[in-house]
Every structure is written in C-alpha cells, then in structure tokens.
Amino acid sequence: MMFREDFLWGGALAANQCEGGWNEGGRGLANSDMLPFGDQRMDVMRGDLDPRALAPDSFYPARKGIDFYHRYKQDIELFAQMGFKCLRLSIAWSRIFPKGDEAEPNEEGLAFYEDVFRTCRAHGIEPLVTLNHYDVPMHLVDAYGGWRDRRLVDLFDRYSRTVFERYRGLVNYWLTFNEINIMTQACFMAAGIIFEQGENRYATVHTAVHHVLVASARAVGACHELCPGAKIGCMLNAGVFYPATCDPDDVLAAQAENRSHYMFTDVQVRGAYPSYVLKEYARHGFEVPYRDDDREVLAANLVDFVSFSYYSTRVAKAHAEGQFDSNLLRSAPNPYLKQEPWGRFIDPKGLRVTMNEIWDRYQKPLFIVENGLGAPDVPEDSGEIEDDYRVEYLRAHIEAMRETVELDGVELMGYTCWGPIDLVSVATGQMRKRYGFIYVDRDDSGAGSFERRKKKSFEWYRRVIASNGEDLA
C-alpha cells in the first residue's frame, strides 16, 4: 500500500475566503475585509496603500465570500459525499475576539466553530484547523500597528489558548500561521502592517517576523499543554527555486531564495534562528528583538509536523529581477514548463523535488495542505462543468506525491487540496479563478445566487479517496 491506512485525504478552506458573515455573530472587522477588488488590491496587500483611504464604493469580496457562514452544513455534506477524511479550515480571530484585545471572547463566535467542527465529525471528517490564515482584527491594525507591536504576542496567546480549551478533544490537528513566509511580501494581508512614510521597512518587517515566530512557538506550547494527544504543525508556502542555469551565481541565487523561505520553518522546527539569517540581519544593521525568555520559548516548543502549500516551483537568476507570479513571489522564466492561466508553472515533478528537500532538511512528517489548479470554469448549456484540465493537473501531482512516498520514503500524513469548493482568490480577489470540485454561482462583481453545483472532478476525487490514491484514472 502506497499511502498509510489513516492517510488524511480532503480539502482546504480559509475563513477569509469562504466564510462571509463579516458583520454577523458578533464578529469584528478584519484586515481581510479591507482587501479591495481591482487594481489597488496588491498595493493594499503589500502595505503600500492604506485601505482606510479607499473610495467608499470599493468592493471587498471577502465580506460575503461564498457564504460558508450560513451554508457550512450543506458544504460539509458535499465534502462527505466525496469521502473526505479531513477538512482544513481556519478560525477568524475577529470572530472570537472582535477587536483582538478584549478580556473575554465572543461566545457566539466560539459556538459557531464548535458546530462547524461537530458537523465535520458527524460525517467522519477530521478538522485540521489553522489558528491564523491571513487574519488580523482591524482594531489591532488601527491601535497597535499590526504585528510590528510586541503586545500582539500576548493577545494571540490569549486567543489560541481560548480556542484550544474550547475545542479540546474536538480538534486533533492544528496549524499555527498560514504560509508564514508570505508575511515578508504581503505585509498588510499577513501581518496587518501599513507602512508609514520614511520608516525602516526591513526592521519593521523582521521585527514582526520575530513576534509571529514567538507567538507560533507559544501556541505550540499551549496546544501541547491543553490538548494532550493533539498534533500541531507549521505551514509554509513551498515550491523550490531552481537555478536558471548551472552558473554558480545562479545556484547561489537559488539557494538564497530558498533560504529566505526556509528561515521560518528552520526556527519552528529547530528552535533557533539559523546562522545565515543572523548574518543577513547583521549586514542590515538589524538585531533580533529578543525579550525575556524568547530564546527558550523558541527552543522548547517545536512543531510536530511540517505542512505546506505547493502550486509551483520558481526560478532564480542572479542579477535579475523576476516577475511576480499569482502567489506574490518572483520567478525568472522556465522554458521547460507550461503555465496555468494566472502564470504559475505547472510542475508535478517539482512537488517531488520540494517534498524531498523539506523531508531531508527536517526529518519531520509532512502534510500537503494546499495544492490545486485555479481555472475559469464555464458551465455548459446543460449545466455540466467539464473540468478535465483540473483532473489532469491533480492526477499528475498525486502521482508525484505517490512516487515520493513509495520510492523516496518520505513520511506523508495527508493531502488536502485547495479549495474543494470555489472561493474568493486571496491573490486577485476573483471568483473566476476557480479551484473547486463544487461550483459556486458567484462572479467577480459579487453577483450570483451562491448555488452549489458538482463539477465533473467531484466524482473523480471521490474515487481517488475511496481507493486511497490507487485509482487515478
């Protein structure tokens, strides 16, 4: 058998892309609610443009998402029909602590997620819960400046302990911060930072990085303390950088790019900043803002597994600046690979390369918690949605995943593809960038009935799960 008997097949969602209900159930305003649709979105995401200064008629797609807040029972039932063993979700911090700094949590928000997780369990689906998926209460942006402020470490500790205590025994798998390495590119989206004129951006960003890493470690410790038997992991936006050529300068450039992302998991898995990061910090005149027992907290609270998203590899070329792909990272061209509609390279073999590199680096169990193809699916006149291109993409990646387990001996816990139902793209704010096995009737302008409809790939993925990955036809 290629995959373990308890392999966790399923799909992955995020509150800020599917939930909606932004002003219901006592929830507070979050940074994700301030990401506009259109040309200004990227500037806001990076922290270059203050979203509070946008035009009053700006459209914010996350505020309604796909209305999972009201339709989660229906959606989880559809996931159960596909045979999901696992569903990755996230908790909206502002639904538990609407402002982020209250002394007491919002009971209505706690009860909502409890029912979501119980609904999953009623269908035999294991929840895999991300504590923070591109989510900062806007009050913490307004009053504290986001993760640049050390006080958020304690506030996040209060939040994480609250949900661990409430969902103890109900949730057995946790992640701390989604795609933690993206916070250096999308500073507002991932860290609630809006840059001030003239500030030292490097120092601001890496101060926030330290705060998040300490908060992550404290969450790991709290989970181990409060939820005996539960497992908690980190989460990386992965996909190795290949050197553009065998020119040693290109090889060094690729190594530097890869290290800039692995630095986060190096700390979360190994418990200390690696020497190459400390050397870089020294060159920038930056010192890690250690406080109190930070070093001990980082060293003592190591993650149980390494989870990651994989959509594409990228290419590094020395002395050249690449193009942004749709995941906010730059890449030089790769003439050997085709590209998907939004520009990312389609590279199933790169998944095997990436898995082996992470496994060799850490020797910790791996969990692929995002992988998928965004495409502008168009229903036929009959209402059918023929998405054979999605099946082809996923088949090739699952085959590569299978080879990595069978031939290379990598320990893999599960695979939750992104996103099993169409949802709002975090990078573009679009609905037409569809990933799901389930079509949602909503367009880029926000119009639509929100009706759910199965695509052709729905039945294919059901067979994959039922056969534990053996039937990929």
From TrEMBL:
Biological process (GO), any one: carbohydrate catabolic process
Keyword field: Glycosidase, Hydrolase
Pfam families, A to Z: Glyco_hydro_1 (PF00232)
EC number annotated for this UniProt entry: 3.2.1.86
EC category name: hydrolase
PROSITE patterns assigned: GLYCOSYL_HYDROL_F1_1 (PS00572), GLYCOSYL_HYDROL_F1_2 (PS00653)
A cellular component term, taken from the record's GO annotations: cytosol
Keyword match Cytoplasm: no
Gene3D superfamilies: Glycosidases (3.20.20.80)
GO MF terms, alphabetically ordered: 6-phospho-beta-glucosidase activity
InterPro entries, per the entry: GH, GH_1_N_CS, Glyco_hydro_1, Glyco_hydro_1_AS
Active site as annotated: 370 (nucleophile)
Family listed: Belongs to the glycosyl hydrolase 1 family.
NCBIfam families for this protein: PRK09593.1, PRK09852.1
The protein's name in its UniProt record: 6-phospho-beta-glucosidase
Species, as recorded: Collinsella aerofaciens (strain ATCC 25986 / DSM 3979 / JCM 10188 / KCTC 3647 / NCTC 11838 / VPI 1003)
